[in-house]
Write a structure and sequence with these properties.
By secondary structure, this protein is of the alpha/beta class. The protein is 44% helix and 16% strand. It has two domains: 111 residues, Aspartate Aminotransferase, domain 1 (Alpha-Beta Complex); 211 residues, Aspartate Aminotransferase, domain 2, CATH 3.40.640. The strands form three sheets. The protein has a seven-stranded mixed β-sheet, sandwiched between helices. Strands 9-10-13-12 form a four-stranded antiparallel β-sheet, with helices on one face. The chain has a two-stranded parallel sheet with strand order 1-11. Helix 13 runs parallel beside helix 15. The protein is globular and about 55 Å long. The model has no long low-confidence stretch (mean pLDDT 95).
Amino acid sequence: MTTLQSNILSHIRQDVQSMHAYAIQDSVGMVKLDAMENPYTLPPGLQAQLGERLGKLAINRYPGARVEDLKTALRQYAQVPTDYGLMLGNGSDELISLLAMACDVPGGKILAPLPGFVMYAMSAQLQGLQFIGVPLTADFELDETAMLAAIDKEKPAITYIAYPNNPTANLWDEGVIKKIIAACAQYGGMVVMDEAYQPFSSQSWITQIHAAPEANANVLLMRTLSKFGLAGVRLGYMTGPAALINEIDKLRPPYNISVLNCECALFALENKEEFSRQAQEIIAQRAMLLEAIGRMPGAQAIKSDANMFLVRMADAARVFAQLKQRGVLVKNVSAMHPLLANTLRISVGTPAENQLLLAALQASLRG
C-alpha cells in the first residue's frame, strides 16, 4: 500500500475497514441451491412479451408516472389498506437501510431475534445505531420472556420480526408477536414484519392488520419481489400507516427504481398466475425434500414455511465440501450463530435439481 493510499484510507471509518464485504459463492457449473432464489425462468412466450415491452421503454428518461402504476398494482396484489402508505426500495436491503437512517437519533437502537437476516445488524452498525440481538430458543422459536425483557429495557426504535425467518425458515407464534407489538407500542417503537418469503408461507401478517388495525398501528409490513421470482430485478416494498411511511419515504433517493425494474415488476404482477404456479410447485417440492431428507440417516430436516430449509448433521463442513465436489452448492450457515452449529441451508430447486441434491446429499452423508 502506498503512502497516498494509506492517507486516503485514514478518512474511511475504521469500523468499515474492519468489515468483510458480503460474500457471494462462485456457482458456475453448479446446481445453485444457496441463495433462496426462485429456480424457474419465464416460459418462452412470456420472455418474448417482456423483451418487447422493455425494448420500447424510454431509457433516456428518468422514471415517471409508471412508478405510481406499480405502486397501485402492488397495493392490489398485497391487499394494502386504502389509508396506508406504500414505498418502493431497490430490494428490501435499501428499505432496511432507510429505516436505520430515519431512526438515527441519539441512543437509537434496533432489535431483532438471532439467528436472523444479517442486514438488520449491518444497517444498524453502518448508521451508528446499537443493535440488540435476542437469541431464539433451541427449537428456533421466539424467546417470549427474553424478547419482552429486552424491549422493556432497551426500548428499540425498530424491532424486526421476519415472518418466516431467515435462515430458520419458520413462522413464529402469533400470540407472542402480538405481545411484542403491544410492548413496542407502549413507548412508540416500530415493529417491522419482514415477509420476504410470503409467496411460500402459510400465513401473512396482512391478515392481522386488516383484522385489528389499531393494535397494529406501529407495524410496518415489508416484502420483496426477489422470492416471488424477480431476484435479479431488485425491488422491495413497504407499507404501513401513511404518517410513518411518508417520513421514511423522504429519505428515499430520487429515481431509486429504474424504468426497467418497474416494468419487469408490473409485467410479473400482470402474470401473477404463472408466478403463483411456480410458488406452488416450489412448496410441493419442499414437502418432498423434507420427507426424503428426513428419512436419511444422519440428517435432520427442519420444517419450513419458506423456499429454503435447514438440515442439521454431525459434520456440516464435511458434507458441504462433498456436496460442492459433487456439483451441488448450498449454504453452510454453521458459523452464523451457535444455534446453527452443523447446519446447512438448502434452497428448493427444480424437480431435476432436487433429485441431484438428494443423490449428492445421500452420498455425502455416507462419506
